[in-house]
Design a protein that fits this description.
Blueprint: H1 3-10, H2 14-23, E1 30-32, E2 35-37, H3 40-54, H4 59-64, H5 78-115
Antiparallel strand pairs: 1-2
Amino acid sequence: MYIGELARRTGTTPKALRHYESLGILPAPRRRGRYRDYSEEHHHYVEFIQSAKALGLTLNEIRAAGPVDPQAPYSTGVAALLQRKRQALHDDIQRRQQALNAIDQCLNDWQRCTDA
């Protein structure tokens, strides 16, 4: 399939597909003359990329995870990447909860001062 068809089937754009290819997270397709000829495997790669992005991973993080088998994507460095991402999100939630608690305390203190 050509780039336009892959873009339509995956809900992305040809520009995004070329970008994924330039980053090395989408393998280069065969060429038919000057046209890219994508396979079903490329479709699986794009679906994986979209899933990873939906989980909050950046394209650079996906690239850093190393080569991905689109049929078994979590058997690679992706699992370790997801564990790191999970820990970072957990840490961020804790920081935000502490900030929320501090704001609540300030509001309570302020309310007590104005009630007096």
